Amino acid sequence: MMPFYSSDDRPPADIIFSPLAFRNLTVKNRLFRSSISGRIDNYDGSGTAARINWEERFARGGVGAIISAHAPVHVRGRILPNYAFIDSDERIPFWRAVVKRVHRHDCRFILQLAHAGRQQDLAGVENLGRKPLSASRKRDSFHGFPSESMSVSQIREVVRQFVDGARRAREAGCDGIELHAANGYLFTQFLSSASNDRFDDYGGTLENRARFLLEVIAAIRRQVGHDFHLQVKISAIDANNALFFWERRGNTLSESIQVMQWAESAGADAVHVSAGNMFPHPANPAGSFPLDVAERNYPIMLASGSHTWRNYFCFRYRWLRPLFLRLWHRTSPAVVEGANLPLAHALKKHLNIPVICTGGFQIASVIRRAIESGECDAVSMARTAMANPDLPLRFAAGHDAAERPCSYCNRCLINVLNHPLGCYDERRFTNYDEMIGELMAFYRGDDAAAAERAGQMLVTVERK
Questions:
Q1: Cross-strand pairs, 32
Q2: Quick one: 127 exposed, middle or buried, by C-beta within 10 A (0-12, 13-18, 19+)?
Q3: Where are the domains of the chain?
Q4: N or C: which end of the chain has fewer CB within 10 A?
Q5: Is the peptide bond between 285 and the residue preceding it cis, with omega within 30 degrees of 0?
Q6: If residue 456 lies in a helix (H) or strand (E), which one and from where to where?
Q7: Which positions ≥6 away from 347 have C-beta within 8 Å?
Q8: Sign of torsion, CA 186 191 192 195?
Q9: What is the pLDDT of residues 109-154, one digit of tens each?
Q10: Mean pLDDT on 334-362
Q11: Is the pTM of this model over 0.90?
Q12: pLDDT tens readout for residues 375-385
């Protein structure tokens, strides 16, 4: 029997589970599943049943909205093979199927449109022999990815690819799109003063460096109208020198505030705040850097860049590991959860659109305090949601945290180069076989363990 409360003694509503209204979209709560996924689709960019099962497990777990894994707008802009594309109309039925499954759980689905630029971890057979496109010919400082400076005609062609991707997303029934302008991908390469050394209308001043992003937003609005949700994920600070102190630092917070003010005027409905102008980066994902896992998985990338052998030696040889870790953690956040909140708060004070903050969130009281204090309007979760897909249901049932929280070990994100995405922290499981069973659940289509936990939590919530 539900408890009765008079108007005077009714407990206050939990802001975590209050709806968030954007200009063109309302989400049932303030918990977003951030962009994360592994190589679970077909090599040619077509989607699989495993992807659908993957997304549904988080919708079933209670998040208000899912931001998809990066969906390449063109094969030349893919980061890794085996991710579902949005590069042609024949992809629309697959994404429509994803949306349908997610909507069963009153969860919204936002498709993240992305282009790797030079940050192409694995080129794939279609891209062998040609350099990735970028704002300039500069290599990144970590992997040493090569690049080709885009001509104006190539920029216009990529603008069109993003516009077509947005149109397809709308036709597939997606609830909105996110432009991935963070973490070192193509938009970041244009925005950042550390990577953009052009001398034309797309380089030099901040206004010129932001031109590509703003042209994409404006062109999408002309194509799909102003009644379709569009948000931008941005690295509020580049911290290009976080690993190697002699590198240029890149864009500052004040520059990112200005960029997002322009983006808001161009038609952006929200900003999703991250940090760091490459991936991985000491600030994103913050936490451990498991060198033993890197040693086993990084060799697949050895042919991708000029600095990859240097990195691999640091991962492989124990006498080099302390040096690498000292550089990596030199500027990494001391506290992972909420590390980006000061950045989100600064952006929120200068914008009139909602602000979503990512960064290791998994404790209800931390999230609640961040929203109530006005630091952000919502939070997004990736690793922590993977560790506990039913985390929102746990919060709704009155728990402040999961019994087995994410350890921020980052084994998930390094294994993804070769293996299924999921939690690889064996300490969180009874044994190795249980961990593997959880990793393989969404391939089988039953996802029995996650479904059972979610059902139990729903019963608990209904009884409260």
A1: 65, 380
A2: middle
A3: 15-286+336-406
A4: N
A5: yes
A6: helix 448-463
A7: 236, 256, 257, 260, 271, 273, 355
A8: positive
A9: 999 999 999 999 999 999 988 999 999 999 999 999 999 999 999 9
A10: 97
A11: yes
A12: 999 999 999 99
Backbone angles phi, psi at 228, to 5 degrees: -125, 130
CATH architecture of 15-286+336-406: Alpha-Beta Barrel (3.20)
169: tokens are 């997303």
Nearest alpha-carbon partner for 180 in 27, 284, 298? 284
Element (H, E) at 292: helix 291-297
Catalytically active residues are 185
Exposed e or buried b per residue across 86-119, where buried means at least 16 C-beta atoms within 10 angstroms of its C-beta: bbeeebbebbebbbebbeebebbbbbbbbbbbbb
Residue 12 pLDDT class (50, 70, 90 cuts): low
Measured CA distances, 174 to 21, 31, 95, 215, 438 (Å):
17, 18, 8, 22, 28
Determine the length of the chain: 464
CA distance 421 to 50: 11
Instruction: Determine which helix (DSSP H) or strand (DSSP E) holds 364, and give its type and residue range.
Output: helix 364-372
DSSP state of 132: P
Residues 6+ apart with CB under 8 A from 295: 312, 315, 316
Residue carrying the six token digits 């990512």: 358
63-118 tens-digit pLDDT: 999 999 999 999 999 999 999 999 999 999 999 999 999 999 999 999 999 999 99
Q: Are 452 and 57 in contact (CB under 8 A)?
A: no
Torsion angles phi and psi, residue 232, rounded to 5? -125, 130
SS percent in the chain: helix, strand, coil, step 5: 40, 10, 50
DSSP 183-206: TTSHHHHHH-TTT----STTSSSH
Question: Do β-strands 26-27 and 20-21 pair in parallel, antiparallel, or remain unpaired?
Answer: antiparallel
Number of other CB atoms surrounding residue 252 within 10 Å: 15
